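Let us practice reading a record.
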Amino acid sequence: MITNPTVVVPCESDEVQIVQPPLIEGATTAHAVPPPTPEQIQAIEQTFAAEAESSNVSGLLGLWTSTLVLHDLFVDHLATSEEEQQREQQEKKPRLTTEDA
């Protein structure tokens, strides 16, 4: 038997180098943006107003369709088949018993 086993484990070391791209001189300086014109402001407001309107319309459409689906599920749940209706009618009919005769 081996009383003192020797284990050899290979050791690897990797060096990580971070390479950053060189800075471009023109990209760091910001140029002045002129304020928007009244026509541009009006166009932007109309764009965002149309998005809110379409969101409201799609919400109402979803509410309406979910109401229709819920109604159909409710009708299907409470509907009885013709066999069940006939069985209920037969149970309601008075029957003659031996005491009545």
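A brief commentary: Residues 38-90 form one domain.
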